[in-house]
Amino acid sequence: MSKIGDIDVGDFPLLLAPMEDVSDPPFRALCKEQGADVVYTEFISSEGLIRDAAKSVMKLDIYEKERPVGIQIFGAVLESMLRSVEIVEASGPDIIDINFGCPVKKVVSKGAGAGILKDIDLMVSLTEAMVKHTKLPVTVKTRLGWDHDTIKIVEVAERLQDVGCKAISIHGRTRAQMYKGDADWAPIAEVKNNQRMHIPVFGNGDVDTPEKAMLMRDKFGLDGAMIGRASIGYPWFFKEVKHFFETGTHAALPTMAERVEAARRHLQMAIDWKGETLGVFETRRHYTNYFKGIPHFKEHRMKMVTSDQSVDVFAAFDEVLEKFGDFQFERF
What we know:
eight-stranded parallel β-barrel; alpha/beta; 332 residues
């Protein structure tokens, strides 16, 4: 049984990764229904929070049905990070997660996200200060290192643990790799196998089949898997992994009716949460995966991703169900 602080998260929990413009409340709700054990918000700028920037503050919205839920923040300025901890705490999450892994240039250029991998002492001191500033468990998400020549993740993880970090999620790539190449889980296993480590070590990167999740558990011995891109437009992934763990067989794929229903609910929840314009716009990235594998689908997908009015998107869903209702999906 893995624990984040005092929170039981089960044997080999599946965590929904924090993803910008993806891990919002509507999508988190769908993933939770499908078996995600822990969900994280989109990453939130500490500077945006203390400036009361509307987009940052909106990301603090969390709901009882999604617990345990972690709010993830990023930044590199101690004073701003501590102030943002106070703001985050007031939203009542179960966990505060620090992003030390985002490879995006606009984040890295400010020394935040994966940028801090160039300054491990700062990474550790920021974590320690934040741990002391809150009663909530603090966790960290990071990468193997800045580049291949500077990988010190075993030492880094131990130092973070020693200043009070309650769990660590490690993406099996360096910042230099961005999202290219294959994730390397071997260094994450080295972290787990370090005799001094006693906090949960979660693996992240390329967990896109139930078999890979099992490999991460059984061969690499990690404490859980953080799921990112495999879940976009496919919240069923969590349930499929758990079914595979329990039975050794693949669960039946969601039917067309189930996919249309999920897409409809997703869009409606998004509109209810952030309004028509943003709700329609920010749900678009999911549709390719909701309906992946349907032949000659481009015309229908274009309607979904170019329509500015939700009524047109809902109509496109109805068309798809009517035209392809009996389509049999195949596993990729």
